[in-house]
Recover the amino acids of this structure.
């Protein structure tokens, strides 16, 4: 066997050891509250938090654990019942790999506006291999961490999405944990960015809806919110709230950022909660504004926004109350919505059925 | 191709000759290859010229108009066909109520530079109030070919009134090849900018076509209409990445812009939104809308029959 392969396997064993669930839980034990009971559910007032996290590589997995804990504690202190993390939420764990210092250096140069010389390493090419290598390490850590946090704080936590392997395929998968700490559901990203198609990420094939006392929840991932079909499919499957993790790899622009969850909750009346990853990573610049969105008719200013963080490049949190009764009342007596079966039956088999 | 969206603000609606002269003068000033008028254009002109007597409110007026407007439709459509021929442009004349047997449709018409009808489009999704007026839904979305400057072909469709808020319409047109959509709209005066962004702006961004959005500016039987007319394109090829090539205020008589098809094709190649759509994942939509059992559920949830 090639010496490098042996080294890689040994190093992964080391990573698995330092990221093991027992270590995560033991570390959290001293700092977690003792099993907070979930707040009673009032369907007229579901309090939600959308987190905006700033990307930072970690050298120690327990630093990542502490950071995620800090975020949940911050949301819990606001009385929230559901918390939404960003896409690619375990990316900071790449800092555990040898050579990650170089990634940080490149991020720093990029933040200071210096041209990235690349130094012979094309991260775009490397990343899929790094995801594959880290997946067996990341997955148990993520489950142990977010399960413990959800149970301790009595919250629903959408843990963001994570790039993992399943049966040899890479998937971009979002996880939802319930207040008992159980994994309530998972959703693979269905519509991919061009970059993700070159990484050979396997697309999800359908959207799931998870029934909870807080309403029926869907977990579309980032690019899924580019298309009206995603939210229409969720709505028709009974969803009330879409929990959307994003990591938008471009300079912030109000209009470009508007092309996601905001129009989608106007087209298909749902509440939408967007968690965003921001910051620099080896030349990638992620921007966004985490927020909580609703149909125009259900927002005080008539602008479709219940709360949205101000900065597009720093840590922040949006918090708002959702009224499921008002959402259902709007759907039942909507001023302009309609369906046209004859039209859909004429064209949909051609446009959606051909690739079944 | 140079396109204009006309709101009918500052156009005389009280006299047919003056209307024609005003519109003709505006078209001469703007010099577009294609112009779009807003929704309710025939009704506004019919009321303004006294061809119809108004009812006690807008709803009643609309009802009276719908019941007996065939003769007026001929006058209205002939006038715009004539204008299109005279100016040598494509003219989407806005909308009127079309009667077919016992069914009424909210319908838009477009004439080519020879004055021939090149597209007639019935509104396919009705608002609550339009359902109360007993309107019927169109069941077909037509695409027609426009010849731009230098003979460059564009495939186009018309989006009528409330269809702007139904993304199925834009998606069907885009996936069947539309490069450009012409929207005739009329929104009751108020803070409409967000409703408009949720309408045509959103349809343009998720389909990467051009749109010419003409919104009615005027008052009919106590009901004011006001919204911003605009020419829209994918964000990446517009100033400030706003998605607007041109955008007026609610009282602006017209907005005009040039469409750069090469730039649109370039962004479609760099970021192929429609190619990236995982269409197979939405086959459930086909199944849902073909399932009669879902009818009762829809009526329960939304308070209207699906058909």
């Amino acid at each position: 066997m090639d010496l490098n392969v042996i080294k890689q396997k040994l190093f992964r064993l080391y990573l698995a050891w330092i990221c093991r669930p027992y270590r995560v839980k033991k570390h959290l034990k001293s700092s977690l509250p003792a099993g907070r009971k979930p707040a009673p559910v009032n369907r007229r007032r579901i309090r939600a938090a959308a987190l905006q996290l700033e990307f930072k590589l970690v050298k120690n997995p327990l630093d990542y654990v502490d950071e995620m804990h800090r975020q949940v504690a911050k949301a819990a202190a606001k009385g929230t019942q559901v918390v939404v993390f960003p896409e690619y939420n375990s990316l900071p764990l790449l800092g555990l790999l040898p050579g990650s210092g170089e990634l940080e250096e490149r991020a720093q140069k990029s933040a200071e506006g210096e041209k990235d010389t690349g130094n012979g390493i094309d991260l775009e090419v490397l990343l899929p291999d790094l995801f594959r290598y880290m997946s067996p390490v990341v997955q148990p850590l993520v489950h142990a961490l977010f399960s413990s946090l959800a149970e301790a704080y009595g919250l629903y936590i959408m843990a963001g999405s994570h790039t993992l392997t399943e049966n040899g395929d890479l998937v971009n998968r979002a996880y939802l944990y319930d207040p008992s700490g159980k994994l309530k559901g998972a959703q693979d990203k269905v519509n991919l960015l061009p970059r993700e198609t070159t990484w050979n990420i396997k697309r999800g094939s359908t959207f799931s809806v998870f029934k909870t006392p807080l309403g029926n929840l869907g977990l579309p991932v980032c690019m899924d919110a580019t298309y009206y079909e995603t939210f229409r499919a969720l709505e028709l499957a009974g969803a009330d709230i879409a929990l959307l993790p994003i990591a938008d790899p471009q300079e912030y622009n109000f209009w470009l950022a508007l092309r996601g969850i905001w129009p989608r909750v106007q087209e298909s009346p749902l509440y939408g909660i967007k968690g965003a990853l921001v910051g620099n990573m080896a030349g990638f610049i992620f921007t966004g504004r985490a927020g909580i969105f609703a149909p125009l008719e259900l927002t005080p200013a008539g602008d479709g926004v219940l709360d949205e963080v101000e900065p597009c490049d720093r840590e922040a949190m949006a918090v708002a109350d959702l009224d499921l009764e008002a959402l259902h009342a709007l759907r039942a007596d909507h001023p302009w919505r309609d369906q046209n079966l004859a039209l859909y039956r004429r064209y949909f088999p051609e446009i959606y059925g051909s690739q079944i | 191709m140079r396109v204009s969206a006309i709101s009918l603000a500052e156009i005389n609606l009280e006299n047919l000759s003056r209307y024609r002269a005003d519109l003709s003068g505006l078209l001469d000033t703007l010099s577009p290859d294609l112009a779009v008028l807003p929704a309710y254009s025939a009704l506004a002109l019919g009321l303004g010229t006294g061809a119809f007597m108004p009812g006690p409110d807008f709803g009643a007026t609309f009802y009276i108009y719908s019941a007996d407007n065939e003769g007026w439709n001929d006058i209205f459509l002939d006038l715009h066909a004539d204008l299109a021929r005279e100016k040598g442009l494509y003219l989407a004349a806005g909308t009127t109520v079309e009667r077919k047997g016992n069914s009424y449709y909210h319908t838009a018409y477009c004439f080519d530079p020879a004055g021939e009808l090149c597209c007639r489009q019935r509104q396919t999704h009705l608002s609550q109030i339009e359902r109360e007026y007993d309107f019927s839904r169109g069941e077909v979305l037509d695409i027609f070919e426009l010849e731009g400057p230098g003979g460059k072909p564009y495939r186009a469709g018309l989006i009528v009134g409330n269809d702007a808020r139904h993304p199925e319409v834009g998606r069907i047109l885009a996936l069947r090849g539309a490069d450009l959509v012409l929207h005739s709209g009329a929104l009751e005066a108020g803070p409409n900018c967000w409703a408009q962004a949720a309408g045509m702006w959103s349809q343009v961004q998720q389909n990467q076509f051009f749109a010419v959005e003409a919104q009615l500016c005027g008052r009919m039987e106590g009901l004011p209409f006001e919204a911003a007319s605009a020419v829209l394109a994918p964000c990446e090829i517009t100033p400030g990445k706003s998605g607007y090539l041109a955008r007026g205020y609610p009282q602006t008589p017209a907005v005009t812009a040039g469409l750069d098809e090469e730039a649109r094709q370039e962004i479609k190649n760099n970021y192929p939104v429609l190619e990236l759509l995982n269409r197979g994942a939405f086959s459930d939509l086909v199944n849902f809308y073909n399932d009669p059992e879902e009818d009762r559920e829809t009526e329960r949830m939304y308070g209207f029959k699906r058909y």
In short: The mean pLDDT of chain A is 93. Chain A touches chain B through 57 residues (CB under 8 Å).
